[in-house]
UniProtKB/TrEMBL annotation, chain A:
Function: Component of the cytosolic iron-sulfur (Fe/S) protein assembly (CIA) machinery. Required for maturation of extramitochondrial Fe-S proteins. The NUBP1-NUBP2 heterotetramer forms a Fe-S scaffold complex, mediating the de novo assembly of an Fe-S cluster and its transfer to target apoproteins. Implicated in the regulation of centrosome duplication. Negatively regulates cilium formation and structure.
Keywords assigned: 4Fe-4S, ATP-binding, Cytoplasm, Iron, Iron-sulfur, Metal-binding, Nucleotide-binding
Gene3D superfamilies the record matches: P-loop containing nucleotide triphosphate hydrolases
Binding site for [4Fe-4S] cluster 1: 12, 26, 29, 35
Biased composition (Polar residues): 14-23
Needed co-factor(s): [4Fe-4S] cluster
Organism field: Astyanax mexicanus
Subunit comment: Heterotetramer of 2 NUBP1 and 2 NUBP2 chains.
InterPro entries hit by this protein: AAA+_ATPase, Mrp-like_CS, Mrp/NBP35_ATP-bd, NUBP1/Nbp35, P-loop_NTPase, YlxH/NBP35
Family from the record: Belongs to the Mrp/NBP35 ATP-binding proteins family. NUBP1/NBP35 subfamily.
Cofactor mode of binding and number, as noted: Binds 4 [4Fe-4S] clusters per heterotetramer. Contains two stable clusters in the N-termini of NUBP1 and two labile, bridging clusters between subunits of the NUBP1-NUBP2 heterotetramer.
Protein name listed in UniProt: NUBP iron-sulfur cluster assembly factor 1, cytosolic
UniProtKB/TrEMBL annotation, chain B:
An example molecular function term from Gene Ontology annotations: metal ion binding
Keywords: 4Fe-4S, ATP-binding, Iron, Iron-sulfur, Metal-binding, Nucleotide-binding
Keyword Nucleotide-binding set for record: yes
Pfam families recorded: ParA
Biological processes per GO annotation: iron-sulfur cluster assembly
Gene Ontology annotations for the cellular component aspect, listed alphabetically: cytosol
Protein name per its UniProtKB record: Nucleotide binding protein 2 (MinD homolog, E. coli)
SUPFAM superfamilies linked: P-loop containing nucleoside triphosphate hydrolases
Amino acid sequence: MADVPTDAPEHCPGTTSEQAGKSSACQGCPNQTICASGAAKAPDPAIEEIKLKMATVKHKILVLSGKGGVGKSTFSAHLAHALASDDSKEVGLLDIDICGPSVPKIMGLEGEQYVEDNLAVMSIGFLLGSPDDAVIWRGPKKNGMIKQFLRDVDWGELDYLIVDTPPGTSDEHLSAVQYLSGAGIDGAVIITTPQEVSLQDVRKEIRFCQKVQLPVIGVVENMSAFVCPKCKNTSQIFPPTTGGAQRMCEELGLTLLGKVPLDPRIGRSCDEGKSFLNEVPDSPAAAAYQTIVQSIKDYCSSNATPAPNSH
Amino acid sequence: HKHTLTHNSFSIIFYHCECVLYQVGILDVDLCGPSIPRMLGVSQQEVHQCDSGWVPVYADPQQRLALMSIGFLLDDPSEAVVWRGPKKTALIGQFVRDVAWGELDVLLVDTPPGTSDEHLAVLENLRKHRVDGAVLVTTPQAVSIGDVRREITFCKKTGVKILGIVENMSGFVCPHCSVRHAHPLTPEAPPTSLLQYRVTIFTNTTHNFTTVHNTSSTIQSYYIH
């Protein structure tokens, strides 16, 4: 049964929730008996199907952020590029930001799925008729699409699958974790800027990970500092008034994977669909990215077989 | 709108310009990432009930700016709101119906990025009231403009008039050498077809938000008719 059936009342708690069939909103709903009996809560068969499909994918990494605009998709794209720079590895990048799919643009793709021989990309951006098309979908429809991406895309043998998400802690995130719960996720990388408004939302993201038992590989602080191309002095456009990601990681016992400075050339590369790791390898931002990517690779190798998440 | 950071800030800047004259409400429907309470310095406040419903939190002693956000309903600001669409939709309905806003000249609704449950819930609940229109916020980068194009489509499909587009973080003034740069992430000029207003963000060594918007030239460029 769908999470919220079409004949469900206004405050339907969802067929898989603990309140299914029992909440006051359920009175009079035609599905009430089924929900209350627990029949609707049987695990979705797609989870087992996806587990089988994903057996050929060695490592799965989710990229999360609390806030939008912190550089999550940029990071996911460049993580994919960096991992694929080793020709012996096969890398996949899945963009489940259904309303705001940025990955195709950042990867320089108009419709093709392969960026390099060993780097494949999937995004709803590819399924839209025009770049102006808006995907105005509610949660249940988005969940269906994510299930399709995970179950029906033929990923083949992959060393790494990176899943880029929209900001927040909602349908897309729950569905990604739920549908991959059989297959297992190595962990999540959380992206932030130094500002407290961003960190505030990262703390929520971390709680989400704890709630769904998703290990946190570490935190990346983006837009840490800006080096003026003219005078070469460093400024902080987003000052870490509460200690930035560093203090937060210390407080919460998490790994700070690295700090990436603001380099105008990153934005230009993304707008042109190129990897700035190739375009500007001497940039301090490129160096920061490479260190971060190495830490992620080390984490994955020490985590040879990810345990299925219990959610 | 791609960048939640910028459109929160924009709601607040609008308030600072307008509140002297108007009674303003801000409804924060970013349920996963509610930043409005913090940005207005009232994150410790709570919401109470009265006979006409939930009492909004006032950001100023004169009570000219009323706020409602899920941020006020959480015991712990680090608590994650991990809700699927239907539950988000239900709460937003309550925010519109059950908050005792009082007499307002303007209600600003601050939304999360995207075109999904929250956006549809707001429009559905405001349908019987008049929605004057939407202000879209972007930065100059192509990925942000890409998302704004989709927001424009959303507005067209849902019959919401677009009052204008604000390009935030158009430029940056280096505090050391005072050279003005284009947006730190995009040295090139963005497509002008989407732009109606340009806003520059100034920075200074203390980087105090109050200081930023007190600069009279900054207020000039933010003011919208």
